[in-house]
Specification:
This protein has helices at 11-28, 34-48, 50-62, 72-79; strands at residues 2-8, 67-68, 87-93, 97-98. It contains 4 helices and 4 strands. The two termini are 24 Å apart. It is of the alpha+beta class and 102 residues long. The strands form 2 sheets. A two-stranded antiparallel ribbon has the order 1-3. It has one domain (2-98).
């Protein structure tokens, strides 16, 4: 079972995502849904980060549920970037508890 999560991204990352979508269209003649492409990119990043995978395996053995805290605004302020209007809807495994500030 999956839940949905909305992430707002900064303008620089938005431009990069747009460029990647253009690349896929021009080079591979494949039109991708931006939300699906962003979700696949995040999964790819998580699936190939060895340090994270090792930590995750240790957490699974220990048993507690991972809680992600904070908000897109907090992250944006930390990076000094403005938030764009683009929102990505991401599929999050039900085992991951996502906590967002209102």
């Amino acid at each position: 079972m999956t839940a949905s999560c909305v992430i707002q991204i900064g303008p620089q990352l938005r431009r990069e995502l747009d460029e990647y979508l253009r690349f896929r269209l021009v080079v591979h003649r494949q039109k991708l849904d931006p939300n699906e492409a962003a979700t696949n990119m995040l999964w790819s990043f998580l699936d190939t980060n060895g340090e994270y995978l090792e930590w995750k395996q240790q957490r699974i053995v220990a048993g507690p549920t991972l809680a992600i805290q904070g908000s897109a605004e907090d992250e944006t302020e930390a990076q000094g970037q403005a938030v764009t209007s683009m929102q990505l809807r991401l599929a999050v495994p039900a085992a991951v508890k996502v906590m967002l500030d209102d």
